[in-house]
Amino acid sequence: MGRGVTVCRRTLRLILTLHGLIRLADTAELLAAELVANAVLHTKGPAGLRVRWAVGVLQIGAWDADPEPPEPPGAPADPADAEGGRGLHLVRACSDAWGWQPLFRLGNRGKYVWCDLAAG
To answer: Domain 2-118 sits in which CATH superfamily?
Structure first.
């Protein structure tokens, strides 16, 4: 898991730097790492990262092969009390919006979890 998350973070930083969006890099890296780590940790099968820039908003999303909602079962009321399960709490706290949707492609099921980060 660690290597995939590291590759995503470094690639995202490079992309943002090349497009003049380095000011978003620290927060975007954190969000991407949490989304990808969640996809890898809680699902079986492939996972991937998608980054999209539109009208001053950076959308970061991770897809995976598990169609279940992204909330971990029995998520603690206070994420500071848990060893794990803080990923989506961080995504909620650090992004301007987030959500998820089920995916159905070529007979395969999965989900896409995304968050938005405004440039302003």
So the answer is: Histidine kinase-like ATPase, C-terminal domain (3.30.565.10)
**Cα gap 96→47, rounded to integer Å:** 23
Residue-wise over 90-116: b if at least 16 C-beta within 10 A, else e? bbeebbeebebeeeeeeeeebbbbbbb
Using a 10 angstrom Cβ sphere, with 0-12 exposed, 13-18 middle and 19 or more buried, the burial of residue 51 is middle
- What phi and psi, each to the nearest 5 degrees, are found at residue 22? -60, -25
Total residues belonging to the chain: 120
- What does each of the 120 residues of the chain score in pLDDT, given as a tens digit? 578 888 999 999 999 999 999 999 999 999 999 999 988 887 877 888 999 999 899 999 999 988 888 875 455 555 454 545 577 899 999 999 999 999 887 777 899 999 999 987
Residue 95's closest CA among 34, 13, 15? 34
Locate tokens 């497009």: which residue?
19
Domain ranges of the chain: 2-118
